């Protein structure tokens, strides 16, 4: 019995949630009648729990949590045990996890884990054509032991990634040189290098430990740091506010001056904004035609206003892009909270006529 397209789409969304380590309470499960179908149970085992097939599985504690919810749903859905039964493979996976030395919830939360973020692509008629996936090794705790927020992926990066994989975004970055400020886990740089056909990209961060983590994530996604034909993606340290040497830029970063500068969740701290805008000015000095894309989670309106005013003082023009977050109940990958506003701004140095959405 084949799985119908509607159920297949539901299962694909569930799979994306699972590998992104979304809390199981937020999973978009198929209904009980669907989930007990033998072919659906087989699909769930093959695509979520068969460790012989899965290259970067979630932590065992998380697998156990999801399996317990799944088995409970299956037990609830079965009215006649003689007609319906729970997959032996799923029960074996549950027993294996119960029997292993699964770390506690608190210990598991402090450990690095594989997280896969997936952007489903569609044809014009709305059918899914392919997926753009990026797998990262990241810390799930909010603040890592080294005192940085750069070792996990935040919602602004996920929204900016969604823009970059849209038709407008792909047309903007294809064949271009990109530079990312405050790259964190490196998700945007890896996404651009792996799927979007950029000619080169540098993922930069001010924390050396974060830069090392980005290098790991570049390797995890099959991207070569030292490709003899020309490096497509690199990780490098860059402290905001420090001068950039135009004469040695290519030697320092492995590519010529960028066409596009990216920054996701880089405006959250009022005290670093002067240094951030100073670095933006340095990049505009390298290339006056530079375009900057900044995606900001507006946690504090005064802080973001301070960023806007600093840009204006430096002769930058800000344009709000019409690319709002997808409401949480409609998201099918990647998944992120939308309770706090998230906005994407295009920043240029030229000053054309103002429009209602411009500063």
Describe the structure.
- InterPro entries: Methyltransf_16, SAM-dependent_MTases_sf.
- The chain is α/β, with parallel strands linked by helices and 359 residues long.
- The protein has helices spanning 5-19, 32-35, 38-49, 60-77, 88-99, 105-110, 155-165, 167-173, 187-195, 208-220, 249-253, 273-286, 301-313; strands spanning 112-122, 128-139, 177-181, 200-205, 233-237, 260-264, 291-297, 317-320, 342-348.
- The strands form 2 sheets. It has a 7-stranded mixed beta sheet with strand order 5-4-3-6-7-9-8, sandwiched between helices. A two-stranded antiparallel ribbon has the order 1-2.
- Strand 3 (177-181), helix 9 and strand 4 (200-205) form a beta-alpha-beta unit.
The gist of it:
This protein has 359 residues and is α/β, with parallel strands linked by helices.
Summarize the topology.
Elements: H1 5-19, H2 32-35, H3 38-49, H4 60-77, H5 88-99, H6 105-110, E1 112-122, E2 128-139, H7 155-165, H8 167-173, E3 177-181, H9 187-195, E4 200-205, H10 208-220, E5 233-237, H11 249-253, E6 260-264, H12 273-286, E7 291-297, H13 301-313, E8 317-320, E9 342-348
Parallel strand pairs: 3-4, 3-6, 4-5, 6-7
Antiparallel strand pairs: 1-2, 7-9, 8-9
Helix pairs in contact: 1-3, 4-5, 7-8, 7-9
Organism: Massariosphaeria phaeospora
Pfam families: Methyltransf_16 (PF10294)
Keywords: Methyltransferase, Transferase
């Amino acid at each position: 019995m084949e799985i119908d397209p509607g159920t297949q789409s539901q299962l694909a969304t569930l799979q994306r949630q699972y590998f992104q380590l979304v809390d199981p309470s937020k999973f978009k499960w198929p209904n009980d009648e669907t989930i007990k179908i033998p072919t659906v149970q087989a699909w769930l085992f093959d695509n979520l729990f068969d460790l012989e097939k899965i290259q970067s599985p979630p932590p065992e504690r998380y697998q156990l949590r999801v399996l317990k919810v799944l088995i409970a749903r299956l037990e609830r859905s079965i009215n006649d045990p003689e007609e319906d039964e729970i997959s032996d493979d799923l029960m074996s996976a549950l027993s294996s996890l119960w029997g292993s030395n699964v770390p506690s919830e608190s210990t598991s939360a402090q450990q690095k884990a594989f997280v896969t973020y997936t952007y489903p692509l569609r044809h014009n008629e709305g059918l899914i054509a392919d997926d753009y996936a990026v797998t990262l090794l990241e810390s799930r705790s909010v603040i890592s032991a080294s005192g940085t927020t750069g070792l996990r992926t935040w919602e602004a990066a996920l929204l900016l990634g969604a823009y970059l994989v849209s038709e407008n975004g792909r047309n903007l970055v294809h064949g271009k040189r990109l530079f990312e400020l405050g790259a964190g886990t490196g998700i945007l740089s890896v996404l651009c290098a792996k799927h979007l056909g950029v000619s080169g990209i540098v993922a930069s961060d001010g924390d050396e430990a974060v830069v090392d983590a980005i290098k790991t994530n570049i390797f995890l996604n099959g991207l070569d740091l030292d490709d003899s034909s020309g490096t497509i993606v690199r990780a490098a340290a860059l402290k905001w506010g420090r001068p950039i040497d135009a004469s040695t830029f290519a030697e320092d970063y492995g590519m010529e001056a960028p066409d596009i500068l990216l920054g996701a969740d880089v405006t959250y701290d009022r005290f670093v904004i002067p240094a951030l805008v100073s670095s933006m000015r340095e990049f505009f000095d390298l290339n006056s035609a530079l375009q900057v894309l900044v995606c900001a989670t507006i946690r504090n309106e005064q802080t973001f206003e301070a960023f806007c005013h600093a840009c204006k003082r430096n002769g930058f023009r800000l344009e709000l892009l019409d690319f709002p977050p997808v409401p949480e109940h409609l998201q099918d990958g990647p998944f992120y909270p939308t309770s706090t506003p998230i906005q994407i701004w295009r920043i240029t140095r030229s000053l054309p006529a103002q429009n209602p959405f411009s500063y």
